[in-house]
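agent> fetching stored inputs for the fe (ii) ion docking request
agent> found them:
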Amino acid sequence: MNILHISDIHFGPYHWAADDKIVLDRLNAFPADIVLNSGDMTSDSLQGEFEQAGAFLAGLVCENVVSILGNHDKYSKRSHEMFRTHIYDGPFIQPKDTSLVKKKKLYISPKTARLNDYFTDVNFLRLFEIGGEKVLIVGVDTNLFQSDSGYVDWQILAALGDEIDKLIYDRALLLAHHSVLSTDEDPLINSKRLTDFILAQNIEATFCGHTHEVDILQVTDVINGGIFRQFMCGSLSSVNIPRDKNMFCTYENFGTSNEKITVTRIIPTADGIGFIETHLGE
Ligand SMILES: [Fe+2]
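agent> prediction call returned; pasting tokens
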């Protein structure tokens, strides 16, 4: 399985001025079986930004593209509806018991907004057949409404767990915007809930973004056993250069002895865009 990982595209004012077509061509040159987009497609959750993100993602030749919301994508009361319209139209997982929900603004009050859908969280399960294997992608919305910090509701995780138990699959990967292992100043504040979920569900790896830095970690549960890796990809197209070193990551033969991880830096030049590949572990 070949995975292409992109993150933090940030259409809107945080998006750089370089030619996205050149980046798209480079992304499409990698023979991806699946593309994982770990969120922050927009700067301010505006309709036009979601439209641009949808058009960009539609330009990927890979048929299996999975995206999750980031904190910047959840600044609007209509974020979940715009995600449905321009990125992916569910079905989304509902909390197991709504009376026990702790996440703030998981539902917007019908008294304060006129919406089609008052449930704001975007969590989903998607199964793909890749190279003879059934690969389950668990999409978890770690974002709090109109906040940069993250939070996961245990009733959502409970419902996801119940649905996962009904499925037959060979491998499970998790896609979320916030890191569960290494945090910045806007962390997933109850990351232990998600870490426990990942270990309990035997999820092989998590893919995230948010910090605009590349970072790959491996965790072992010393008491109970269990192991997983976390792949954090930097921003694809941030305007904030050189602080953000724009990049994408590719994982060839993921999880096998022939695994090859490549970080491709994307650097604006006087006459276009330069790409510098680094093969990790070589
Ligand atoms: Fe973010």
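agent> quick read of the result: The mean pLDDT is 96.
agent> awaiting further instructions
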